[in-house]
Amino acid sequence: MRTKTGTRARWWRTRLGAALAVCAVAGTLAAGSQASAVVTSSTPSWTIAAASPQGQWRTIVYAAGHFVALGRGPDVAVSRDGAHWTLHPVPRGPWASVAYGDGRFIALSSSTTGPHELTSTDGVTWVARSGPAGSWTGVAYGAGRFVAVGSNGQITTTVDGVTWQTTWVHSKFDFTSIAYGNGRFIAVDAAQGDDLISLDGLGWSFYPITTAHQRWSSVTFGDGNFVAFDNSQRTLVATSVLGYTWTPHSHAWSQTIDAAAFGCGTFVALGHALSTPARFATSSTGAAWAPSPLLVDPLAQWTAVAFGASRFVAVDSRGRIASLRTALDCSRATPAPPRDVSGNIPTAGQVWTYMHPPAIAGGAPIDGYLITVSDGTTTRTCHAAVYYQPNCIVSGLRDHQIYYVTTQAHNRFGYSVASDPEWVIPVASWNFVATTLRPVVPASSPVLVEVTGVQANSAGIYPESQMAIHFGDRVYYCQPSWFGECYIKVGAPALGRTAIYADYVGYGRAYRTPTSYVTVVP
Predict the structure, then answer these.
(1) 187 and 140 in contact (C-beta within 8 Å)?
(2) Rounded distance, CA 248 to CA 263, Å?
(3) Does the pTM exceed 0.85?
(4) Band of the pLDDT at 41, cuts 50, 70, 90?
(5) CATH 2.60.40.10 fits 339-424, yes or no
(6) Spatial CA neighbour of 305 closest among 331, 267, 333, 276
(7) Rounded to whole angstroms, how far apart are CA atoms 33 and 42?
(8) Residue 308: beta bridge partners?
(9) What pLDDT digit, counting tens, does each position of 215-226 carry?
(10) d(CA 324, CA 61)
(11) Range(s) within the chain of domains with CATH label 2.60.40.10
(12) What would the 3-class secondary structure string for 137-185 be?
């Protein structure tokens, strides 16, 4: 692993205003109809659509350009902007969780009787499937697969929504929620007080979040952090970067939290209250939270929330839908480019590219990376998943050809600009050598000398000092690229056989290539 020192930009975080007003609006959602509301307040306001009792919403997602809400009723609610909705028929639920990935929506039931699954490519027309049996409480997409968790301690996964594989079954666990970020799935448990971690959705390990038997009810990911909520004390929040160790925090109001989402630099959490008015809560970090009363049916049970189209949209079990437009317009908030692009050569005709996530995520979480490798004539690309150090291998390259590597980060609003280009030279084996493309060259042509396999120190950082490339009695200097290469062009080479080698001193150790030769002929 190789990294650079320093960063190109400071971390950036957008914050919503703490003041949230509430506006109640009358209207009814019906098949083929729309409902909307006009907010006249100058501060961010939750807009409440009147109840659609048949909805009994349990879950919501924003993907493929629109919100999709499902529940216990015979309808799915669909909206492009979070304010205007249409209803479409689906088999009656309870549909308790929904996720999107690889061009398809998958919804799962919390009932042990079928059908257990719905699938859709557009969020409007759904196909009922037998699906995996279980009391499913959450589903997430990442690393090329869907992973679902259930209250019976079961975890199952699929790549196509048709064939499912159970990867964990332990009845002592009661999984309530799952999220994907930082290259891993994290599921939280309401029985043992643990979280389960998997990098691929197949192998799992579990760790205590704070103390045993906490009732963790929800987990979400945003801005590089996982945030989990406890429903036993009703004041406990915990944050973690990788899920192995957690930092506990507290909020000042007593309320169950059933769902949370991140967008536009802000977390929003919601649930229901047993005796006091239910509140929504916001946080810019996941640690400190500001509550905001929602003065419509104070004992309502808000079940899910999603972010998209510059809005948070929440749903409740009585058919209401609430939306909050963010204080800033994040619709054009694409991320900054990835940082510290580097890599190595795993084998002939390939380059393995690493990078660090961008300093600015933009208006929505990063959901992938695009790597482009080009020599000006041939261009090849690959896609990297969200990970703490995103990486992928680009194949089909020509050895000893000089390529330029750029990377882009992507969120739901689009791609970042490309990173600064770094150059790389694929070779058959990654050794510290100085070679020419041809052992015999005419005097009328320049000689291209390539140095590959530059070694990094134990911290994975390439030498900051320049390398000396010796071409006969000439000496050239070159700063190695972050892929461990240097190259020079020698013009007007002398006739005859010339020795070539490279050397440098890196972190107190001297390195020297074997001597190679080139013959220049008239």
Answers:
(1) no
(2) 22
(3) no
(4) very low
(5) yes
(6) 267
(7) 28
(8) 311
(9) 999 999 988 899
(10) 15
(11) 339-424, 433-521
(12) EEEEEECCEEEEEECCCEEEEECCCCCCEEEEECCCCCEEEEEEECCEE
